[in-house]
Specification:
globular, about 375 residues, about 60% helix, 3-stranded mixed beta sheet, mainly alpha, membrane, 14 helices, DUF1624 domain-containing protein
């Protein structure tokens, strides 16, 4: 019996390959989220003094997820818009943007915090995607070549304004935080978090949209190799990232320093080392289909559902896990105090070996949930 998850994708190898890549990267993102809740609380994988190669690698491979989501979403939006008028595209994009922002504020924020008072509100990947699609609704009226040029220029040069920082809670300051400056904004018991700044992420989305009509397998490999090589050149001369690499006491630490690129805001080095390999993988996986790829497509064909359900499952499991400790389960309700040193979870956590085992359990549980979800949609 054929897997109903992939039944409708067989005739479209391009869509299948994109969903395959999204599915693989979703499972990696789930690994990083498992680390966040089950590894030692508030551990920074990028801190050279305390990190380990496996901890850094666990975080680093998750970097590929977000750029892939934004770029592939851009290509999806282009394909979807081909048989529609610009006006139809405008209103549909605005509606989609609104829905994603609502999902971010009401659902995703709750799943990360489990706080019914919503004392912590964050702009994460779903909200940033919504804002980016809303902006694209207006800029899609530009000629495709001009939009492509604009996207490339933003990706290349946005790092040049990293030094422009503001403070305070004025409207102009908040708009700047959303555009380019990662910020934690405390306000009494409330905390507002801006992680995904819009400039580079919108540019990735619009890049996918602008080259949608040129999307061909033959240039994926070349572009991917060029971007990957460009990363080593730019990183080698310490250009394009606010965090320069330095020679460390050991080769491994130096390697970690070299690959420790800035995600918030996403630097040009970060974009090159994530987009480049992503293009290469997309080139080679097109046309491949077997039971293993069908497994990952189950996740990639319903990415939003998978992402939200995985966050709920991981957070709930972490809360249940506290029942077997002396720590109150309320400690797993994320508030501004959760980010302070000395909180209840400061000494709580498990080794990375346990994290990886839990991750495998979550992935297989999610597989059956996502398969049932897709089966329901296909038979609806």
């Amino acid at each position: 019996m054929k897997n109903p998850t992939v039944k409708k994708q067989i005739e479209d190898p391009e869509q299948y390959s994109k969903e395959l890549l999204l599915g693989i990267l979703l499972t990696i993102a789930i690994l990083d989220h498992t680390r966040l809740f089950f590894h030692y609380w508030n551990t920074n994988p990028g801190k050279l003094e305390t990190t380990t190669p496996i901890l850094f690698f666990t975080r680093f491979i998750s970097h590929f997820f977000a750029p892939t989501v934004f770029f592939i979403t851009g290509t999806y939006l282009f394909r979807w818009s081909k048989d529609k008028s610009r006006r139809q595209v405008f209103y549909h994009m605005l509606l989609l943007a609104f829905l994603l922002i609502v999902v971010e504020l009401l659902i995703n924020n709750f799943l990360w915090t489990f706080d019914f008072q919503y004392r912590t509100i964050g702009l994460f990947i779903i909200g940033a995607l919504g804002l980016s699609i809303g902006l694209l609704a207006f800029l899609q009226f530009m000629p495709k070549k001009l939009l492509l040029l604009f996207s490339i220029l933003v990706l290349i040069f946005h790092h040049s304004i990293d030094g422009v920082t503001v403070t305070g809670k004025s409207l102009s300051a908040i708009l700047w935080y959303i555009l380019h400056q990662q910020k934690y904004i405390p306000d009494g018991e409330r905390l507002f978090i801006v992680n995904y700044t819009i400039l580079p992420w919108f540019a990735l989305l619009s890049l996918g949209y602008a080259i949608g009509h040129h999307y061909q397998r033959k240039w994926l490999l070349t572009t991917g190799l060029v971007l990957t090589c460009l990363f080593f050149i730019l990183r080698g001369i310490n250009f394009g990232d606010s965090q320069p690499w330095t020679i460390q006491v050991s080769f491994v630490k130096t390697l970690i320093s070299f690959f420790s690129v800035t995600k918030y805001p996403a630097s040009i080095d970060f974009i090159c080392i994530t987009l480049g390999p992503m293009f290469i993988v997309l080139h080679y996986i097109k046309g491949i289909r077997n039971k293993l790829t069908d497994f990952f497509v189950t996740f990639g064909s319903a990415p939003l559902f998978t992402y939200l359900l995985s966050t709920f499952l991981i957070h709930l499991a972490a809360m249940i896990g506290l029942c077997f400790t002396d720590i109150s389960i309320s400690a797993m309700i994320t508030t501004s105090k959760s980010y302070e040193k000395g909180n209840e979870l400061s000494n709580y956590g498990y080794s990375l070996g346990v994290v990886y085992l839990l991750w495998l359990v979550f992935v297989f549980l999610l597989y059956y949930c996502c398969r049932c979800y897709r089966t329901y949609l296909l038979h609806k």
